[in-house]
Amino acid sequence: MYDICGNRTDGKPLNCATPSPAVTPDRAFSLKLQSLCPTIVGDVCCTPTQFNLLRSNVQQAVPFLTGCPACLRNFLNFFCEFSCSPNQGSFLNVTAVNGANNAVAALEFFITDEYGRKFYDSCKDVKFTSMNIRSMDFIGGGAQNYSEWFAFMGKEAAPSLPGSPYPISFRTDVKEGNPAVTPFNSSVIACSDPSFECSCGDCPLVNSCAEPNPPAPSETKGCHVQIAGSQVACLTLAVIILYGCLVVIILGWWLMFRSPRKEMSSKERLNPDAQSDLANKAQQTDVDSQIRSPNELDRLDPKHQNHPAKENEAVSRLAGAGAPFMVTFLSNRFRIYGELVAYNTKKVLAIAIVITVVLCLGLIRLRVETRPEKLWVSYGSKAAEEKKFFDSHLAPFYRIEQLILATVPGSKDSPPPSIVTDANLKLLFDLQEKVDNVRGNHSGKLISLQDICLKPLGTPCATQSILQYYQMNVSTFQDASHAEFCFQYYSSSETCLSAFGGPVDPTTILGGFTGNNYTQATALVVTYPVINAVSGEGNAAAIAWENEFIRVVKEEIVGMAIANNLTLSYSSESSIEAELKRESYADALTIGISYLVMFVYIAFTLGDWNPSVAPFYVTSKVLLGFVGVAIVAFSVLGSIGLCSYFGVHSTLIIVEVIPFLVLAVGVDNMCILVHALKRQDLNLNLETRVGLALAEVGPSITLASVAEVLAFTVGISTPMPACRVFSLFAAVAVLLDYLLQITAFVAVLTLDFRRSESGRVDCVPCIHVGRKEPGLPNEQRHNPGLRQRYMKNYHAPFLSIPAVKASVLAIFFGLLFASIAVIPRISIGLEQKIVLPSDSYLQGYFDNITEYLRVGPPVYFVVKDYNYSIGSNQTNKLCSINQCDPNSLLNEISRAALSPQSSFIARPAASWLDDFLIWLSPNAFGCCRKFQDGGYCPPVDQCGLNNTCSECTTCFLQSDLVEGRPSTEQFRSKLPWFLAALPSADCSKGGHGAYTNSLDLAGYDSGIIKASEFRSYHTPLNKQSDFIDALRAAKNFAKKISKSLNIEVFPYSVFYIFFEQYLDIKNTTALGLSVALAAVFVVCLVITMSISTAITIIFVISMIIVDLMGLMVIWNIQLNAISVVNLVMATGIAVEFCVHITHAFTMSTGDKGERASKALVLMGEPVFSGITLTKMVGVLVLNFAQSKIFKVYYFRMYLGLVVLGALHGLVFLPVWLSVAGPDPLVEQKLPSLCNRFWRSVATRRPGSIGTDSAGK
């Protein structure tokens, strides 16, 4: 095939078919030939024109192979022998001739199977780093073996496309003994040959590579024990053993106390008949032993005169003899304070109102933070610092606008059909036209997608869409078959190049397929990358376009998809923030209803129903209930106002959740205060009774409130801003609520009792209807309520039975140990869908992301302070081409990509450094070129028609380099050329576009590049655990490589800042709960001055928290900053279920069983109606909220807390106190307030008549 005999219609030269003997080249031609084809020595079978054509053709492939010298040399030798070998007649056979010009029209190329296999093996793993794919995808059409590669090279090129001008049939079926044919079997250099050694990434067989095949990922399942062929966790086994031992102990205890005498004695403690003697004695020694009337109108002294003796006696008995100093101190101070408030109600109200109004004025400075990165990224986050470094030194990750168009299954059991059809592609063109016409209004200027989109190589947007196979032009569309062709040849066929000049990977534009079966895809993914600014103000134009984009999609595009039996999900970069804002208004009605429901409940609970004393509209407490709810509302507003004064931004969670939370927490104390006031001696004046009521319940209310405030305050230590600010606002709100309760509410309570005792109508106190005289039979004066009778006659006696005690202990400890066993199964994370409103369009979008996407988010490995000077050797520590260190950064990334199950890295990294070194190499003779004056010369195909580049030469000779590497000055001078060079067919390694933002060249003249990145991709991440594990794996990888190379490397991906918190969430949880429990313990210890009492309270609270965590596993509530804060706050809230009964227990006398029963009868009803039911009412309303985060993290968790708290407080705690309760804090010889109340209750049968001190 000597010389050129003609051209195809598209201008491609055709070789002559006439046989010709080999010729001897002249010296100049021989030197040129040797520079490219060193294996051709002596005579040749080609002309200088043919050689120039050969050089021009192979130079397009050279940049793909320069990183692997063995592959490059084999590739050049193959085409040199094909074009110029003097023996080509022995392995080439012309099978068709163009008669017009005697040019070759078809050809056979005989090769040996051994040669083809070795040739392919030397090149099959070579990487094209800028695209993160194999070079074989370009030079071999993605061939998986040598037969496919040769078939690709022998395929006749279509007009105007690169490739062979005629078909070439590569044959290995040569019959033995055929003297006319000698199959081509030139020597092949293995990629592992030391003389032409490739990098580990391009040739895993290189001897210096540390691990050619990565080890299988180890699965760490923790400690397990093999029992009966099943794997049992060590923790589970330990819990089972411990619980078994505990059950044996409980059973032994029950056997000791199960005798009829003991059991009867237990019952007799609560039997009114058996206690008659004690009751009669109590009547003689304690004239104040009867129970207070539950109705404040039922007075013995209509003149409201005090009995000094009774008052002094009541005061002296409040704390009981021997009571701890702090209890006595608080009781006395609360008594004095209560009387002071009762005597100065108007002044107290005025001061409270003024202070509240002043605090609420801070609402003027209210600012609501909705930016996700400001809400869910921890303070001091390492990932946040790395993101800031990445954004400031390189470029912020682009904004993403996305459409996902998917097919619908024909029936329930049938799979969805393929979406790659002519009709669907035509529809997509119509949808794209709608998007192109979107115009956002920013400051009076209309913004189009072209104004804001990412344009790496020029004017066209880098839209990732299947339409790019048609250059986004509907006029080039004929049918879907071209797209199917491009799925296979997207990186090698020029007809498949996008409008912006780069190839489009089908994995980024298709969804719902398996493996490489792209034609079976069920979804089309269209992504619009938009330029992202570091500052929020710089994105204003993009946000304006995004808002209009979402509107157009909702109103027009969705309908078009549905009309064609397709589904469409969509999102913009600002969608999450916009939906979070909308969420704040979605639950306004829920908040209003909750306050209304709580108001009705409080008014009903606090009021009395005793027609024999006064009409219901006199004894009702509607106005008092309204004031109680108003106090809660103003405490929330005051908290927000106070924090806003100091510039603390609020969040939507604060606006939506804290009102519920404070409502559920704050109403309890009001109920307890009202019930305490009703229990006081009606022979005392109202002011004295108010003081005594505060003295009675003030210490326990204070303890519970302080514990709650401290628990909320501990939440401030949480690093996540949204939860930290939430805890701050909640702590201040609960504190304000407590202060308003003991000031404003006590004042209003006093006024309301005055109103009812004077016979005035509730809500309209100006109307006086009078009241009946109190000289009523005692049956009507001292009839206890239904809940109180239940506690006295049923609940307490039942729990005092030894068998019941044993069962209660076994059941509750069983729950405790079961929860401990399942706690390790709590999943970690926070699903994005949970945070959004349930009717948000993003709900379907996130579902489709999980279902259809087959590529994960990009991950960048960022190198800080890269020293490119020749003496540092850091270049070889980073690169992955030949002569690079086997354990270099890029080689390690390639090795990690071989085990994606454990590394979560999907492919080798795109390397600007590798491509720059190849671009600079003299072997890539079509890339780095210079004019005679030393200026940059572009590749030939970019020079135009005036042939201005004919005199250009390569930038350097091989001898100019230092061991194949550029010197410091060569690196410094040519790096800007590389970053400005446009990629083209003659030199695909140009860095413009692909690496424009991959380096920070500020101050690089010093020999240091402050920041550079190498881009790879994560595997598809579908679950929260995938994101967390991917982040952990990337950080561990970077830490390991930084230590081994002594170069600072960190990974960066857009989701890292939101998931970093989960790497240490378990330790954060343990620390937060420990500090909260310690704070509650200190408060209990200071107030009760009893270590055993404090330990008892902390023990029960810990049981509630552990059981709540076990409930999280059952309800699939994930562990995250929100649930951690909830658990910490639950520690404070759980105090209320324990402290009142425990306080009453410690202030009672008798044996432990008697004291437990007394405490339960005294405080059981307030704990049930005043704490449990009030919280239950506030929590139940959360179930009707629009946001899933309300339902999952607030409704479920707080419902579980209330139920568990009530069960532990009203069932387990009395039993535990009767068995292992602390010693009494008062001396046995003097009756305490609890004993005085108990004797009053014990002397009366249900519905019986109590007797006063006079025996009437």
UniProtKB/TrEMBL annotation:
Residues 587-751 form the SSD domain. GO terms for cellular component: endomembrane system; membrane. The chain crosses the membrane at residues 235-257, 348-366, 585-604, 624-646, 653-677, 697-716, 728-751, 799-823, 1070-1091, 1097-1117, 1124-1146, 1166-1185, 1197-1217. InterPro entries: HMGCR/SNAP/NPC1-like_SSD (IPR053958), NPC1-like (IPR004765), NPC1_MLD (IPR053956), NPC1_N (IPR032190), SSD (IPR000731). One of its GO terms (biological process) is cholesterol metabolic process. Its main location: membrane. It is a multi-pass membrane protein. Keywords: Cholesterol metabolism, Disulfide bond, Glycoprotein, Lipid metabolism, Lipid transport, Membrane, Signal, Steroid metabolism, Sterol metabolism, Transmembrane, Transmembrane helix, Transport. This is SSD domain-containing protein. It is found in: Endomembrane system. Residues 295-311 have a biased composition (Basic and acidic residues). The keyword Transmembrane helix applies. Belongs to the patched family. GO terms for molecular function: lipid transporter activity. Residues 267-311 are annotated as: Disordered. Pfam families: NPC1_MLD (PF22314), NPC1_N (PF16414), Sterol-sensing (PF12349). The lineage of its organism: Eukaryota, Viridiplantae, Streptophyta, Embryophyta, Bryophyta. Coiled coil: none annotated. Residues 273-293 have a biased composition (Polar residues).
